[in-house]
Structures are given as structure tokens and as C-alpha cells.
Helix-hairpin-helix DNA-binding motif class 1 domain-containing protein (Desulfitobacterium hafniense), 219 residues
Amino acid sequence: MMSNSEDYGVILLERKIRYFWWGVLGLLIVAAVWKFILPHNSAIMVEKAVENREIIVYVSGAVEKPGLVHLPVNARLHDALQQVSPLPEANIDQINPAEKLKDGQKIIVPYKPVPQPQPQPQPALAAAGSQGESQGQTAIVTPNLDAAAPSRSSNLININTADAAELDKLPGIGPALAERIIQYRMEHGLFLQPEDLKKVSGIGNKTYAKMADMVTVGP
């Protein structure tokens, strides 16, 4: 028979073994939680953090409300256009509404091209020739020196039809002033004379003098 001291030693050993296995089981549970639960929650938290971020883009051109636009990270160009309200003159066919935007991106919405007036035929020479033949006389045709010489006006920029890119080529006119010229034209109608450019905010006598011989209002 075992003595009381021996019985107590056996019981103590069994308890130690039991505590050991409980500790092992606890470690396994903790490892399982760490492996299968925490990574999933961490991924969800990262996804939510990404969703809560935003990007900022700048929109100008043929829109009612140009300026900075705040959008979610995965926004498309269509989302930005909804906030700035494109004008009826906006040429949406030249841009891609499905384009994915990036933070800090600049977007210029183009205008539709303005149709150029067709030149009218000048029948004066033909009429003079037919009249001379009917009277039995030889018609004298004077050459049109203006038509033979290269037209200087072909190199001028028409401020009533030019888009922002063309206006930007003028000296002293950058992207901002080009947008102001187009905005003034939309609000007040066509310019009657080149000097009317000085009515646009930011264009004074000095700025206009730099471009005076490069602009026109005619076809």
C-alpha cells in the first residue's frame, strides 16, 4: 500500500500533466485565432481604410463649375463630370468617361469646334467676261493681286472661334487667361473688334499690345 505522501505525489504529478496539456491546448487555440481570424479582420480594416481615402482632381474647360473636385479613390472621369456640370458646348465625344482618375490629375474638357463660314463665290470676273463677248469686244481681266498674294489674315488667330489651346499660343496668354477669354465669349457673345480683349479680366493695354497684330475677329 502507498503511504499518504506517495498518494499526494501522484496527485501532484497528475495535476502538473493536466496543466501542461491545458497550456498546449490554449496555445493551439491562440494560434488558430491568429491564423484564421485576425488576418481576415486586418484585411477588412485595410479595405475600409482604402475606401475612406479620397483623391483630388482639377477640372477646367467647357464646364459650369471648374475647380478642385474631391472623389473616392476608384472614381472615374464620369464621376468628376457629374460634379462640374459640362456645358452644352462641351465635346464629350473627345474624352473617355470611363477613365480611372489619379490624385492630382488635371482634366480639360474640350469645346465643340465652331463651324467656319463658307466663302461666297465672286462672279464679278465671269460676268465681265460674258458681257465683253456679247458686245463683240475682248474682255480685259485684271488679275486679283490680293488673291495671288498669300493672305496675311490666314496667320491670325480668330478670337471668336479659337479654343483654349489656340489662345494659349498668343504672347502673354496662358491657360488661365485662355479660359477667361472663352468664358467671356460665352457670357457676352462674340467680340466685335480685337480691342475688346481688354474687357477680359487680366488683359490690360500692355498684354494686348503683345498680341495686337496676331488676332482678328473676322473669318
The beta strands are 54-61, 67-72, 106-109, 157-158, 215-216.
